[in-house]
Amino acid sequence: MASTLLTPGSNAERSRQYNRGLVLGHIRREGEAGRAEIARASGLSTQAVSNIIADLLADGWVVETGRRSGQRGQPAVTYAIRAEAGAALGVEIRPDAVLAAWIDLAGTVLHSARVALTRARPEDVLPVLQGLPGRVAGCSLIGAGVVMPGPVGVTGLSGQASELPGWGGIDAQVALEEALGLPVTVENDANTAAMAERVMGAAQGIDTFACLYFGTGLGLGLVAGGEVFGGAFGNAGEIGHIPVPTPEGPTRLEDVASRMALVRLLAEAGLHPATGDDLAALHAQAPPAYLDWLDRASTALGHAVLLLENLFDPETIILTGALPPPILDDLVARTPLPELSVSNRPDRRHPRLIAGRVGRRAATLGAAALVVNTALSPRLVATA
């Protein structure tokens, strides 16, 4: 039978889980909250909230944090998320390595690991995943997010060099869940980086934003209403392939505004940075090749900003990923912000373009953050 999406109250168990997510989501946003406050914000009755809080206390998901004085009556008990109630695992599968990170419900990094690979075929990667710890710092895992490069399914962008060999012929979701023994969400690096910024970085408290991610190329993560927007087939955000005008004619955005474009221009000038620290050191020297790239990249990003703002209407656009913070700051400062944009408005709460704070591990941490975000958000689940 085909799956259908029902209203929150049409199934008792679904309704209970959805309302539990409403309560957890409000507490997470506010840091701590009382029952009456949660009831007003969620639209639930105070009695319903009290029942949910009782369940969350019994399950160890929330803790009492104190009492807050009101205008009348007894001071209200306040509650906060118990960070150690569970942990989430984030895994990034690269052609040469598996990166892993474990975070708690507050987004604190508990542990991280890197396992080098000579190949990244399923028979090489899955045994590595089977050996990852299922419990860290006393916290049991509630799920895993896995980052894999390349578009989902066969598309006009298939066959790129960054794709992993051998994975196209298997059901990756099933194979990963069997290896890890956990529920798994598979995402691309830009989407997970966006979620990392929301859970632990520059987008905390922001529900709708765009995230330009500097990885192998240039990707785009879209978050709408606090959830990743993946598109019909999970491939929304392939912004690096859109053409932008340059003095030499239309060129793909990521051929101008990406880490690989920067490294290429530096190499042509006889400079060969091998790591992010090398790039940071070169930034401090400000060689002409870097300044040339900054000029070209920021101009190209200005076109991308115009496109994103007028199509998506985000609260802000965040730059994050595998570029050192000073370079991201330079791009934010130099990228022209078009006047003819729906985002050019006087009542903004956030700058139109900001630098991310998570750093070069944004995709790996974001894969774990995706699990935390799901656990602490209301969610309508299809039923058979």
UniProtKB/TrEMBL annotation:
Molecular function per GO: DNA-binding transcription factor activity
Pfam families, sorted: MarR_2, ROK
Domain HTH marR-type intervals: 22-68
Superkingdom field: Bacteria
Family: Belongs to the ROK (NagC/XylR) family.
Protein name: ROK family transcriptional regulator
Organism: Roseicyclus persicicus
Phylogenetic classification of the source organism: Bacteria, Pseudomonadati, Pseudomonadota, Alphaproteobacteria, Rhodobacterales
